[in-house]
Specification:
The protein is an all-alpha fold. The chain has a domain of about 35 residues. About 70% of the residues lie in helices and about 0% in strands. It has 4 helices and no strands. Helix 1 crosses helix 4 and helix 2 packs antiparallel against helix 4. The longest helix has 19 residues. It is elongated. The chain starts with a helix and ends in a 5-residue tail after the last helix.
Amino acid sequence: MNSQQQQEFLQATAWLRPWTRRAARFSMKTQGFLPQAIRNLPLQLVKRMLAHYQSAASSGCKSC
C-alpha cells in the first residue's frame, strides 16, 4: 500500500476510530463476567469493517 492509499484508507475509516475505542473499552471492562465470544463481538465487527475497507482500497474499488 503506497502513501496515497494509506491516506485514503485513514480518511475512509476515520469515523470508525471512536467505535474501536468503545469496543476495546467494553471488552476490557466486561472481562471476567461475560463469555469471551460475547465480550469480543464488538471488536470482531470492527475488525471485519476494517478488513472490508482495506480490501476495497487495495483493489482500487472507489464505490465500495
